[in-house]
Structures are given as C-alpha cells and as structure tokens.
Amino acid sequence: MSRSFTFKPNNVKLSLMKTNIHPTYCDSATVRCACGNTWITGSTLPEINVEICNQCHPFYTGKEKFLDTRGRIEKFKKRVTKTQAALETKTPKKPRIKKAPKSSIV
Predict the structure, then answer these.
(1) For labeling, which of 7, 46, 64, 72 is most exposed (least CB within 10 Å)?
(2) Half-sphere exposure of 53 (CA within 13 A, CB side)
(3) In tens digits, what is the pLDDT along the chain, a chain of 106 residues?
(4) Residue 53: CB partners within 8 Å, gap ≥ 6?
(5) Which segments within 1-106 are labelled E, that is strand?
(6) Fold category of 22-67 in CATH
(7) Where on the phi/psi map is residue 90: left (φ > 0), alpha (ψ -120 to 50), or beta?
(8) Looking at the whole model, is its pTM more than 0.70?
C-alpha cells in the first residue's frame, strides 16, 4: 500500500523569521578589566567592562587563599595521619588454610 503526497502551494503556510529583532553583532568588542588588562572578542556590545579576569583572579594567578575559620583542614590532616599510623602498626592477617574438599562415597 503506497501513499502519494502532493504539494499544493495554496495550502502551505510559510513561516519566516522575524526581522529587526536581533541585536547587531560586533566582531571587535573591547573587554576592559579593572586591573588594566584588555582583549578583543565578539559580542553584541561594543565595549565591556569587567571587575575580574584571568590575569587578576586568585585561582588563575596561584595566589588563592584558603579561608578555614573552623580548622577543618587541620582536623582532616590530623585524621589522615592518625589513620596512616594505625595502618602502619597493624599486624597482617594470617592466611587462611583451605580445607580439603570432602570426598563423597556413593
């Protein structure tokens, strides 16, 4: 059983994209950081001002500070050293002796 489809231009509704609703794209947008670093990128804005970038962010510069007010890092390090010391002093278990299988006589 085959079906045939016919294209009738009068029955087809064409939906076109709306015009003049999208912002203009600027290929050479200048980004300026508070630290003075600038670079060029693409954006819908011609100029962008940011407070922090990869040149001044502590994570990327390696000047990251750990804020540990409750001493969690010290507690963790203490727990790890205690566990390692317990593992070093632990005596190894004796190997199990396998029993010979029972022979069944029929």
Answers:
(1) 7
(2) 13
(3) 445 555 556 665 555 667 788 888 999 999 999 999 999 999 999 999 999 998 888 777 777 776 666 788 888 999 999 999 888 887 777 888 888 777 766 5
(4) 31, 33, 35, 37
(5) 26-33, 38-43, 47-50
(6) Rhinovirus 14, subunit 4 (4.10.80)
(7) beta
(8) no
Q: What type of residue is 82?
A: K
For residue 32, the number of C-alpha atoms closer than 13 Å in the C-beta half-sphere is: 7
Helix (H, G, I), strand (E, B) or coil at 51: coil
Alpha-carbon distance of 37 to 31, in angstroms, equals 8
The one-letter amino acid code at 73 reads: I
